[in-house]
Amino acid sequence: MISVSEALNILKGINIPHKSEICPLDEALGKVLFEDIYSPIDMPPFRQSAMDGYAIKWSNAKSYRLINESKAGDTLNHSLNDGEAVRIFTGALVPDAADTIVIQEHVTRNSDAITIDKLPEKSANIRPTGEQIKKGDLSLAKGTSLNEAAIGYLVSLGIHEVKVYTSPKVTIVVTGNELRAPGTMLKPGEIYESNAAMLSAALRKIGITNITKYKVEDTLEATVTTISKAIAASDVVFVSGGISVGDYDFVREALLKNNVEEVLYKINQKPGKPLWFGQNKDTFVFALPGNPASALTCFYVYALPLLKNYMGFNNGALQRIQAKTKRDIKNPSGKTLFLKAHLEHDAVEVLQGQSSSMLYTFALSNALVCIPEHITEVSKGDIVECIKLNEQ
Question: What does pTM read for this prediction?
């Protein structure tokens, strides 16, 4: 059995076989650029009016004759002589001969004549060509996570698709003869299967949508066959349950029969001690405990950083912060504890109901309080480490 820090260091050292794909920008939200993007154009691509007003050749004159207008979308480059002005609107092409825009609030208009009430500095209110970016300059660097602003920015440069890190194909294998699908009637001894839905939701939350799910009966032969099929079709496999040492826990043996190299097994923590991780060529396998809270804890702490790395993020681990505990915490186990909790500002409250089978408390939590294995007692008001669950 290894410590939490040892397990995290092992997973950090895993070599991820990153892949790329061409993605339309309208499908790229949350994805990470696989390469640098350079601007194909100047932006703006022409001298652009920053305000509604009047384009002039700057001088000390107060009166100008209005000869034309330029609105956004017009492509005609109006000629302009001394003493003449062009009515212009925000975003419109500034005539070559004009060097200043006088905003309309500083002008008195009388039919086709204007009088400038407040003369601006020369070059005022004009966005020069390439003010935002020049053609050939770096627009966004490799490793940039594409938010809505980044997508809009790239589209404004005429870019419609980009090369991004490919999200992994994931298969979830659920074990347990007692498990039934929601919507069916339960018999004595049966429960509804929730781990596949829970893990699928956690995957979709970070942008992974290529998800396959299998339910396998508790026999070695069926487990070997299903895991073999999952490995062949996936980049990452999650197996839920069957990884402990019960008479019907066949997952570890089935994984080894499928040539999945065991990288780590059993971590000195509570919940989630029987976590297993291994690798078959470029496919990674997490065998999670069957208890839902244990499975979700292991997903957050260990699987999430690897998945985010696969997707191109530099640091996929959930944010850890310090907060004052609102109650005493006992840890006689000698294990690292991950306790479901509610974090508010700089204070955190460990919730009642810490059983590894209980998801209700997890549904009310926004943090996990981490108590190291060597700490046996924490008093109310002491500082503890918290993992923020909503920072993905």
Answer: 0.89
Q: CA 91: distance to chain centroid?
A: 34
Distance CA 392, CA 374 (A): 29
pLDDT band at 5 (very low <50, low <70, confident <90, very high): very high
Place of tokens 């009047």: 54
Nearest in space to 107 (alpha carbons), one of 87, 127, 121, 130 = 87
Q: What is the mean pLDDT of residues 270-292?
A: 96
- Max Cα–Cα distance, the chain, nearest Å: 96
Sheet containing 236-240: order of strands: 211-216, 170-175, 236-240, 283-288, 276-280, 261-265
| Alpha-carbon gap, residue 149 to 368, rounded angstroms | 32
Q: What residue ranges define each of the domains in the chain, with the CATH number in brackets?
A: 4-19+167-310 (3.40.980.10), 20-43+131-165 (3.90.105.10), 48-127 (2.170.190.11), 320-388 (2.40.340.10)
Residues 294, 339 contacting (CB under 8 angstroms): no
Distance separating alpha carbons of residues 311 and 80, to the nearest angstrom: 54
Interatomic CA distance for residues 340 and 359, integer angstroms:
10
Task: Extract the tokens encoding 380.
Answer: 């109310």
* Structural tokens at position 169: 């194909």
Nearest to 176 by CA among 289, 258, 271, 269: 289
Q: Which two tokens stand for residue 367?
A: 């943090």
The closest of 330, 348, 333 to 389, measured between CA atoms, is: 348
The DSSP line for 15-36 is: PP---EEEEEGGG-TT-BBSS-
User: How far is the C-alpha of 250 from the C-alpha of 244, rounded, in Å?
Assistant: 9
pLDDT classification of 392: cutoffs 50, 70, 90:
low
Conformation bin of residue 285: beta by default, left when phi > 0, alpha when psi is -120 to 50 = beta
What is the average pLDDT value for the chain, to the nearest integer?
96
